[in-house]
Amino acid sequence: MPLPELKQNKEKRQKLLDCALELFVEQGYFNTPVRQIIAKSGFGTGTFYNYFTNKEEILKALLEQFANEIISSVKDYYTVEKDLAKRFIETKRLNMEVFIRNRKLTEIYCRVAGASEVIDATLKQFEDKLIEFFRKNIEYGIKKGAFNDVPATPVAYGILAIEKQLLYKWIVLKDITAEEMIEMVISYHETLAKGLLKKH
Amino acid sequence: MPLPELKQNKEKRQKLLDCALELFVEQGYFNTPVRQIIAKSGFGTGTFYNYFTNKEEILKALLEQFANEIISSVKDYYTVEKDLAKRFIETKRLNMEVFIRNRKLTEIYCRVAGASEVIDATLKQFEDKLIEFFRKNIEYGIKKGAFNDVPATPVAYGILAIEKQLLYKWIVLKDITAEEMIEMVISYHETLAKGLLKKH
Questions:
Q1: Which of A14, A178, B72, B161 is deepest in the core (most CB within 10 A)?
Q2: Residue A198: its chain B contacts at CB < 8 A?
Q3: What is the DSSP letter of B147?
Q4: Which residue of A85, A157, A192 is in closest CB contact with B165?
């Protein structure tokens, strides 16, 4: 059983995560056994199990850091940009930039869905965190009177859905460049913000 | 090598597809070898290879029929509903109803992405067909002056993305019911149609 968080050494934990990510990138998530992660880290087997129970927990921790990075980049931007309409569009660019900076983790995220129940639960935790953050921001915009009073949850799902679909097109299908991907995400959210229907 | 289409017997081909789908549903796509499909069909091995080269071709054919069913259901509806704004929303309900009717194929669609390059290419063909259909309908709405003159391609991707994300939530995560899924898809497209931003 892993040690309580207080007794864990943060640098050791991060070292295990870094080694795991490197191996996942080199040879794929599914082809990387825990013992290779342990060997790469140089720690003993017992040390590994002080921090993680299994490989899925490593993926969960990596995705948790990832979600936090996406959310902080948006929060930092909020301190300098106060216009809610501009925020709605430009935060999508920031999201995509974090995905691009973490290209390898993004690729794992795009590839592992549907593989097993544990993986699906792990991805769900990552996605729910982002969707919840998107939802709160939309509700804030509604409360402040900048947005129409629409159900926020489906919109939050829609944001993640288009980001994910275009990430897949970029990183798995290699069908578009990173720049084209950002452009499509921005164009899409401009339409979502202003509406597809002509006003009469 | 498969026979030219003209020399193929449509019922035999369909029988092979039906047997394959049943096995994919029972034991998963990846756990079903071609020889089991042949055994279930009662045909000889040579007959199978008159129609398909491998398992991916079966999946491709199943998804092609699936895309055609989605598209025809929309086209049928177009013959009775002429209002473009209403069409934009209600066709999404029709899409989801076809996915629900083909629950097992939908589950395969939601689970196999990212598994291999051949699978990804197969799914891409299915998705591209739907995206192209969505794109044409949006461009028709723009041409007819019902929709704003926005880039249609990102919107078409967005439609498939939210449908897929919520299908996954329904059929893989079992997090929402079919009715809740339809409701979210409709709500989302109402927002997309009218716009999130308040007009000033």
A1: B161
A2: 145-148
A3: B
A4: A157
